[in-house]
Amino acid sequence: MNRAKTIAHPALNDSVATRQSNRRAEVRIARRFDDLLMVYAVRSAVYIAEQERPFAEEFDGNDHCATHFIGFIKGEPAGCIRARFFHDFVKLERLAVLKRCRKSTLAYELVRCGIALARRKGFRRIYAHSREGLEAFWARFGGKPIGADRHLTFSGFRYTEMVINLEPLPDRLPPHRRP
């Protein structure tokens, strides 16, 4: 695995590793073409094959303007999330973990890395869509429903719009610096 220099903040390292019940979860920013292929393979397996979503809804054209995180279990691609950066907020979306790996900490590590990068870049707000019944997952990160009437349906699933308010890090990156 190609490792760049280590930077003090975990979301900016090439990888972040955790352990739980003999399952090693590793997350890194997708920087190479093969990393993106792994992201697309995981998303296709989860959203298109497992949940039977249409290709055009899953691959919406926003992947080229996003930062992607790829997660591994025992060295194999098993999860991903993308972050899109707007003027004053970050949108974390397309969180996917292969079914066989959902008892690992990978989903948590992917979201933690996305939040850490947003904070490191100085953002104060994150938006996410929580599939109905999974709002408690986002609440672990400070996520709160935007309002009782803020729901949407996408590909037959109902979602709650969530927001996470952040305190930026004092040593955040300058706007022009790429992690």
Keywords:
single chain, 179 residues, alpha+beta, Aminopeptidase, nine-stranded mixed sheet, 4 helices
Protein described:
- This protein is of the alpha+beta class.
- It has a domain at 10-126: Aminopeptidase, CATH 3.40.630.30.
- Helix content is 23%, strand content 33%.
- The chain is built from 4 helices and 9 strands; from the N terminus they run ββααβββαβαβββ.
- It has helices spanning 33-50, 55-58, 106-120, 135-139; strands at residues 16-20, 23-29, 67-73, 76-85, 90-97, 125-131, 144-145, 151-154, 157-165.
- The model is unreliable at 1-11 and 17-22 (pLDDT under 50).
List the SSEs and their pairings.
Layout (H helix, E strand, L loop, with lengths): L15 E5 L2 E7 L3 H18 L4 H4 L8 E7 L2 E10 L4 E8 L8 H15 L4 E7 L3 H5 L4 E2 L5 E4 L2 E9 L14
Parallel strand pairs: 5-6
Antiparallel strand pairs: 1-2, 2-3, 3-4, 4-5, 6-9, 7-9, 8-9
SSE sequence, one letter per element: EEHHEEEHEHEEE
Uncertain parts: 1-11, 17-22
Strand content: 25-35%
Helical region count?
Answer: 4
Beta strands, count: 9
The CATH homologous superfamily of one domain = Gcn5-related N-acetyltransferase (GNAT)
The main pleated sheet reads as: 9 strands, mixed
Radius of gyration: 16 Å
SSE-based structural type: alpha+beta
How would you sum up the global shape?
globular
CATH architecture of one domain: 3-Layer(aba) Sandwich
CATH topology of one domain: Aminopeptidase
Helix content range: 10-25%
Summed over residues and divided by their number, the pLDDT gives a mean of 85
Q: What's the CATH first level of one domain?
A: Alpha Beta
- Termini separation comes to 18 Å
